[in-house]
Write a structure and sequence with these properties.
Helix content is 50%, strand content 16%. With 232 residues, the chain is of the alpha+beta class. The protein folds into 2 domains: 96 residues, no CATH class; 117 residues, Cytidine Deaminase, domain 2.
């Protein structure tokens, strides 16, 4: 009789969590909608409550699973029930995803994994609220030496100094580089200033035999390559 009472008094979310874990084990992520994956991420942050309402509220506010993971801490905390523990779990997922993409890039020459490089740059920068200017430094075999955010600016401008790019490329010992920056507006269309700055960097590096492979501009609406657009 005591065992029956314990089972009856068990919070409903405990059984729900067990069922979700089993579904994930059997069918993987493909068998689950976004809100259920988000529920499972929240399990560790919220030990004694039903996480489904919060998962659905987060998706309703931010529009997609990706937007939730990339949302700034202050915006996340606007949602009732989101505290430091929830923010930490969401940011951990983002960090792990980026680390996996980085690992793929480090295993082979970047020119043989161009799509993976673009995916990584988009994941790292598309949702940033301010402009960032990133440089991926490559060795003679086109393996990554260093991936570095060199400058961060405002919502529509990042100061980039050609001499600093040249100086850093020499410090790192790079044979080639890939440039990238984001447009927080969402539209990755390059500006005249973007093209002019890229050409100035290319001209300066050409004098010391360092190649600029491309300049990728990232926005939430997609990405563009200045080389593919024949702008450089």
């Amino acid at each position: 009789m005591g065992e029956f009472k314990d089972a009856q008094s068990q919070p409903h979310y405990q059984g729900h969590r067990a069922r979700l874990r089993q579904r994930f084990k059997v069918g993987g992520a493909e068998a689950m909608p976004d809100y259920e994956l988000l529920e499972m991420i929240l399990f560790r942050a919220i030990a004694r409550a039903d996480t489904k309402p919060l998962a659905k509220e987060l998706l309703a506010k931010f529009g997609s699973f990706s937007n939730v993971i990339h949302a700034p801490e202050a915006r996340l905390k606007e949602v009732k029930g989101v505290g430091d523990a929830v923010v930490s779990e969401l940011k951990l997922i983002k960090a792990c995803a980026l680390r996996l993409l980085q690992s793929e890039l480090e295993e082979k020459p970047i020119l043989n994994s161009w799509s993976a490089m673009v995916s990584y740059v988009c994941a790292a920068m598309a949702h940033e609220p301010r402009e960032q200017f990133r440089i991926i430094f490559l060795d003679k075999r086109h393996h990554i030496l260093l991936d570095e955010v060199q400058a961060e600016g405002t919502i529509d401008h990042t100061p980039v100094y050609t001499r600093e790019v040249v100086k850093r490329a020499l410090e790192v010992g790079a044979s080639a580089i890939i440039l990238a920056h984001n447009h927080p507006s969402g539209d990755p269309t390059p500006s005249r200033a973007d093209v002019k700055m890229t050409k100035e960097i290319m001209d300066a590096l050409d004098k010391i035999n360092i190649l600029v492979h491309d300049h990728i501009i990232v926005g939430r609406d997609g990405h563009v390559s200045l080389k593919e657009l024949q702008l450089i």
